[in-house]
Write a structure and sequence with these properties.
Layout: H1 2-7, E1 13-16, E2 27-30, E3 48-52, H2 58-64, E4 69-73, H3 86-100, E5 105-110, H4 121-126, E6 129-132, H5 144-156, E7 162-166, H6 174-185, E8 190-193, H7 196-204, H8 209-220, H9 232-237, H10 244-250, H11 252-259
Parallel strand pairs: 1-2, 3-4, 4-5, 5-7, 6-8
Helix pairs in contact: 6-10, 7-8
Length: 263
């Protein structure tokens, strides 16, 4: 999104945890989104803000924005309205807070990102098998660059009060995703399906139990729909959403390098 704004000639001021991670031309502000006081002074003159859901003291941050328009990165889970689901809840509550603030806003509710492919890297370093859960669930993953382009368009204005559900252009099961990325990388990679029990055990090693339950509800129980291909990206930015093959080709060098880093 930062690159999209810069390419459009827009001034960019971005909150980062450490300096030196932004493209040339962007003004970096080091701070913590959970602590609005760490970057309050940097909000002077800001006309639009791209925010993430689920951070603390959101109400305080919104007050500090004056009359700036807000583009909130929410989730495909927000339309469920299910606040008993831990992940959906923080997105829903963030949307409610922004809507109640009186600021002009746009909500973005994207599907899973194509860049989740990078989660396969430890398996690709160890061999040519990628094991993933929810083998029967097709997902129309979205290129993060397309999400950034939509966010940049919303920040430029003209999208006030809109909620955009966003997807990629094709709905693919995990085995199909692995096959596409394998072809782009020129590797013979095989997909193996995890059972729901194996998926739960693996997720439990890296996230709280309530988040594990949330993702099992999303994909094993069907609480969310990420299978439907939506036209929203093209409607907003005027070009088709990029395919997984296109995303993988654009990132092939980085994926190859990371997949062989310890090999």
């Amino acid at each position: 999104m930062v690159r999209a704004l810069l390419d459009a000639g827009q001034p960019v001021r971005a909150l980062v945890r450490r300096a030196g991670v932004l493209p040339d031309g962007a003004d970096a502000v080091v701070g913590d989104l959970n602590r609005p006081e760490t970057f309050a002074d940097a909000l002077d003159g800001v006309t639009g803000a791209f925010l993430l859901s689920g951070y603390e003291r959101l109400d305080e941050l919104l007050r500090n924005l004056g009359g700036a328009r807000v583009v909130l990165l929410s989730s495909s889970s927000a339309p469920s309205g299910d606040t008993s689901n831990a992940v959906a809840r923080y997105h829903i509550e963030s949307e409610r807070a922004v809507a109640a603030s009186g600021l002009p806003y746009t909500f973005l509710q994207p599907n899973s990102f194509m860049s989740n492919v990078f989660r396969w890297l430890p398996q690709l370093r160890d061999g040519d098998v990628v094991r993933q859960p929810f083998a029967g669930v097709a997902v129309a993953t979205i290129d993060p660059g397309d999400l950034g382009a939509v966010a940049a368009a919303a920040l430029a204005g003209g999208h006030q009060g809109r909620t955009y559900r966003l997807s990629g252009p094709e709905s693919l099961r995990p085995a199909e995703q692995v096959a596409i990325v394998a072809r782009v990388l020129g590797r013979d990679v095989r997909f193996e399906a995890q059972t729901d029990e194996q998926a739960r055990e693996e997720m439990s090693r890296g996230m709280p139990p309530e988040y594990v339950d949330a993702f099992m509800q999303f994909f094993a129980e069907g609480l969310i729909d990420e299978s439907t291909v939506l036209p929203t990206v093209e409607q907003v930015i005027g070009r088709p959403a990029r395919t997984l093959a296109q995303w993988a080709a654009a990132n092939a060098e980085a994926i190859r390098a990371a997949a062989t880093a310890n090999g």
